[in-house]
Amino acid sequence: MKLLKSPILLGFAVLFLASCQTGQNKSETKAALSQTAVAEWAKDAVIYEVNIRQYTPEGSFTAFAEHLPRLQELGVDILWFMPIHPIGELNRKGTLGSYYSVKDYKGVNPEFGTLDDFKALVAKAHDLDMKVIIDWVANHSAWDNAWATEHPDWYAKDSTGMMFGPFDWSDVAQLDYENTELRAAMKDAMQFWVREADIDGYRCDVAGMVPVDFWNDVRASLDSIKPVFMLAEDETETDLLLNAFNSNYSWVFHHHLNKIARGEETVSDMLPYFESLNTTMPVGAWPMQFTTNHDENSWNGTVQERMADAYPTMAALTFMVEGMPLIYSGQEAGLNKRLEFFEKDTIDWSNLSMTEFYEELITLKKSNKALWNGSAGGKMEIVTTNAPKEVLMFTRTMEDNKVLAVFNLSAQPIVLTADPGMEGEYYDYFSKELISLPLNNFELEAWDYFVISTTN
Q1: Please, what's the b/e burial string for 141-157 (b: 16 or more CB within 10 A of its CB; e: otherwise)?
Q2: 2 contacts 443 by C-beta, under 8 angstroms
Q3: Which H helix or E strand runs over 148?
Q4: Which residues sit opposite 443 in a β-bridge?
Q5: What proportion of the chain, given as a percentage, has pLDDT over 90?
Q6: ω before 420 within 30° of 0 (cis)?
Q7: Cβ neighbours around 108 below 10 Å, total
């Protein structure tokens, strides 16, 4: 990036006084207030998804534990483990099966180790000041889960009276939450892992397919044991965030990132998403932002396939917008293959090429309260520019901390003019170059970005 000289810089000093230059995300309809408890450690947290099967050649808890010091140094806070339970064999997909076909809700997949191995892993993570949550599949179970034969009335039935799987998920059977005994058994299983393994919460698979009142009851019971964090794999059922969950998925934003990277959308198409957060996201809750995860990587393509040269830019953006950023297993090592979902497919850790990049982003987030999660962080204020389709420019402010983020979300260089309501010279967090504000004929290369943080 470089600054182009122009005689009209003085004019921007005057425009600086005009508040109309900074677009504000306002709406007549206010979002509801979340009553879900927020643990102090979640307020600036970065989440990291652990794919135990593919993480090491051994695919075990013990082997993964060797990576914990490296992950602590990376700066992540919450380790989200994909399901650790025994996998169903009846109607199994592939050789090893889907993690999400749970045969025993209180058991451990023997491929990964034992319950004691997992407890030791949790304890070691806690010693390194990291939290552990596990994936929970409450909507359906494996066909050969003991419940299917011992309690068939706990399962939903089709018009012929037969159990069935949701969608085309032939390896699982749908549970029936009209049954109070099922609810009690599922809650008991979730309490088990918090009490026995000292985990710190759950990421709940297809959470919106399970009744909200069940989740509310579970959350209250877990909070009575210890403070927990709950992540819902859902985006539309926002009532989940009122009393049960702290965070949900941001698929809409993720899809915008993919489409902009492919040149199918512009920044203008993305802006309604930010506006919608003010009316749909309960105050105090927050979305999880991501460039990839286990589903996106295995089924929809690597970040290199989907985003190409735009990937680092999009990854940086997920740390700047409202929400909690996710890093998936291997992203810090430049993961560039679709990991097999039902087979063994070990991640290559020989080149930690993206580690410094993510370390910088995590440090930036943690050192600026404006970038924190939920009500602990600042709201986005969109700044008007002369390139509204190509450039996303916004500020976030919390107390005396203000962050200005400028992203060229296009494959072309842009000469940018904009007044963010700041005046003077500031250092870009990444390049350490001095940048004069307001911006006047400032050149951004394709997919270029800079971030300025200030403390009054």
Answers
A1: bbbbbebbeeeeebbbe
A2: yes
A3: helix 146-150
A4: 2, 415
A5: 93
A6: no
A7: 19
Which domains does the chain possess? 2-25+382-455 (2.60.40.1180), 40-371 (3.20.20.80)
Gyration radius (Cα) of the chain, Å:
23
> Which 3 state secondary structure label does DSSP give 102?
strand
pLDDT in tens, 423-448: 999 999 999 999 999 999 999 999 99
Q: Encoding tokens for residue 445?
A: 């290369």
Question: Residue 328: what residue type?
Answer: Y
List beta partners, residue 155: 175
SS3 state of residue 298: helix
pLDDT for 456:
79
pLDDT of residue 17: 33
The string of pLDDT tens digits covering residues 371-417 is 999 999 999 999 999 999 999 999 999 999 999 999 999 999 999 99
Q: Read off the tokens for 38.
A: 């927020």
Give which of 365, 426, 350, 418 is closest to 396, Cα–Cα. Answer: 365
- Six token digits for residue 94: 């592939």
